[in-house]
Amino acid sequence: MLPPGDFGLVVRALAFAAAKHRDQRRKDPAASPYINHPIALADVLVNEAGITDPEVIAAALLHDTIEDTKTTSAELEAAFGERVRRIVEEVTDDKDLPKEERKRRQIEHAHALSPAARLVKLADKITNLRDVANDPPHSWSLDRRREYFEWAKRVIDGLRGANPALEAIFDRAYAAKP
Ligand code: NDP
Ligand code: ZN
Could you tell me the distance, in angstroms and rounded to a whole number, from the CA of residue 7 to the centre of ligand 1? Predict the structure, then answer.
């Protein structure tokens, strides 16, 4: 059982992310609420991989706030502390770069991620592979879905050794490659 303070951090992160992503939708045909995605990461980490570090779960809930909303690093640090802020920064792409370059950098930088950031990155790729397999954007061709799987695997192959249980969950998600 988590101490009450740790529940507090996680629930505050959930409320913060829900407010920040409130007007955003995922790319699936039903345009699901964006917050379903950070919740899916937390679900994988806690309920599938047994990870209970509250700062890792909070960072997972917050992982797309800097990249996809107007949230700043300073705001995250003030509300959730230095470690959560740093984990989120580590999994945030530089939006000034072109898409192709961002994708290349994720592969190149995977080996330099901290242990906590590796867990969040793994959960993000697991949930996105499941979405691409089961509920992809309607405009995506089969080739594009397959390319996404291959790219995600190249990112994850660069950070293996972080958590064998989570890596096995990733491999099972990858096995559903269309
Ligand atoms: P992505 O290809 O990166 O889109 C996927 C991202 O969208 C995911 O990583 C996820 O990111 C988010 N997402 C939201 N909803 C879903 C969902 N239901 N299923 C899967 N992912 C979802 O970015 P873009 O769409 O901007 O495309 C740009 C890239 O795609 C370029 O690299 C380009 O080369 C390539 N491309 C390939 C084509 C092809 O036919 N092969 C055609 C056109 C572009 P998060 O977790 O951060 O939200
Ligand atoms: Zn994400």
Answer: 33
Lookup: tokens for 99: 């898409």
Residue 42 one-letter amino acid: A
Does the beta carbon of 132 lie inside 6 Å of ligand 1?
yes
The CA distance from 65 to 38, in Å, is 10
67 is catalytic: yes
d(CA 127, CA 44): 8
The rounded Å distance from CA 3 to ligand 2 centre is: 27
Give the Cα separation of 108 and 112 in Å (integer): 9
Q: Given the structure tokens 């995605």, which residue do they identify? A: 37
- pLDDT tens string, the chain, 178 residues long: the values are 667 778 999 999 999 999 999 999 999 999 999 999 999 999 999 999 999 999 999 999 999 999 999 999 999 999 999 999 999 999 999 999 999 999 999 999 999 999 999 999 999 999 999 999 999 999 999 999 999 999 999 999 999 998 999 999 999 999 999 9
Give me ligand 2 centre to Cα 37, in Å.
7
Atom 32 of ligand 1: nearest residue by CA position: 100
Task: Provide the whole-model pTM.
Answer: 0.96
